[in-house]
Amino acid sequence: MSTPVVNQAWKAMTRAEREQFDEDGFLLIPGALSADEVDYYQAAVDGVYQKASQSGGLAADGSLHLLSAAPNCPELATLLDHPAVFGYVWSMLGWNTHVYHSHIDVHPKLAERKPFWWQWHQDGGRQNREIETDPRPRMSVKLAFWLSDVSRPGRGNLTVVPGSHRTNWLVGPPSRGIEWPQPEGAVQITVNPGDVLFFDRRLWHARSDNYSDVTRKVVFVGYTYRWIAIRDEVADLSERPWWNSLTPVQRQLLGTVGDGTGDHFWGHFPDTTPLYGELAARGLLDPEHPPLIP
Ligand SMILES: O=C(O)CCC(=O)C(=O)O
């Protein structure tokens, strides 16, 4: 499978980026993907959209929200460890990491006004109910790869409350269908094709409706520790025809390295965990940062 990803040096998040991420709960990386890459990934997503429209896989409003991005669209596997942005993931989570949840989203212009729905949430599902600390722990981070022009508000922008990742509770309506004002401080993130947003799963965020003429296309990839279960499709991946074209790190990210034992996911075997080896070979393990201690 040919990919336009340009070989680039791996680099760790800088101290300034870490401070900004800690403060805001997100970082925008402009121009992370080249124009050729945007074309390549956009064509792949368009293909998935077309297939879904032929098989009845679209929502009534013509949108697509498809889980398991790479298993459903193998051309996207090179996004999982894309060198322009993967450093943010391992700098934060370390080497014992995999992709637990990913999705392809295509949102064409809405033909009519949608009934109100309170979309605001933190990622992580039941992690938000079952973990008792305040603030909750980070647990996972997400990359959003933007493939269409969302450079103005009103194009289905991701909306966030900067700095809200340390707040367990967002005041909202008694039920999601009841009209309610936007949270104080909410901003629509504006992005160009090829920009990537890196965010803390606890950042309160919501998709907004797209009434513009520009179809919104984006791929979200969520990463967590290997000791947390994967929500994406994992069965039989190694039997797929495209499997052999993946790198060992991509295979790790898709949940299939090791001997299948809990001990491997636990992180007891760095020597057979590809990301550990890649970071060690590049001198990027870091005694100052616990998930990266050699
Ligand atoms: O599609 C969007 O803008 C929102 C995505 C989202 O809510 C999520 O990734 O958890």
Automatic annotation (TrEMBL):
Recorded GO MF terms: 2-oxoglutarate-dependent dioxygenase activity; iron ion binding
PANTHER family per UniProt: ECTOINE DIOXYGENASE, PHYTANOYL-COA DIOXYGENASE DOMAIN CONTAINING 1
Organism: Actinocrispum wychmicini
This protein's name: Ectoine hydroxylase-related dioxygenase (Phytanoyl-CoA dioxygenase family)
Keywords annotated in UniProt: Dioxygenase, Oxidoreductase
Family matches, as InterPro entries: Phytyl_CoA_dOase-like (IPR008775)
Pfam families according to UniProt: PhyH
